[in-house]
Give the backbone structure.
Amino acid sequence: MENSPFNLDIQNSNTDSRIVAALERISQAFRILLWNESKDFSLTPIQIQVLIFLLNHGEEKRTVTYLAREFSITKATVSDTIKTLSQKDLITREYHQEDTRSYTINLTSKGQEIARKTSFFTKELFTPINKLNPAEKENFLLNLVGIIHHLQKAGIISLQRMCFTCVHYRPNHPQGEHFCNLLNIKLENTDIRIDCPEHEEKQG
Ligand code: SF4
């Protein structure tokens, strides 16, 4: 495609294209870091991601249906992943009394240990981020949140638990530009959450 950001003539004469190309490089770094971590534990990248998710989210989110939406994969793929993690003694299934076909997924102590260790796979990213000053970090975070919000509205990523998609979020509140009605607090730009445990999806 002539105007692709990967066309070097376009990329090297256009800042927007270089930003997109730079984001692609960073996504590649995430894939490599995750892959390196998964090799160390003889797990696949998605198995590692599921373990980290289970460690950090409440039981209402630890279901096959929720994981399928979270990772944009089929329920069959999630079920296969859960089966393998169970065979490795990393998770258990807690079947629901009201519907014995569905279950909550819990980490075993061995699963918790691996999830804790592997959840640091992004640590290399902190070196350049730590060097930014507070204003640069605020700007960086707001821009990233804006990109994520756009990708959700465009239907590319399905599930986000961020303030901008939450029923409790109030923009342009008398107390500030961002306000959380549930926590009853003004949110600074740097307080905007991208994975909030209290998030409730805004409809429409
Ligand atoms: S409940 Fe969480 S996601 Fe929703 S507005 Fe408040 S802080 Fe943001």
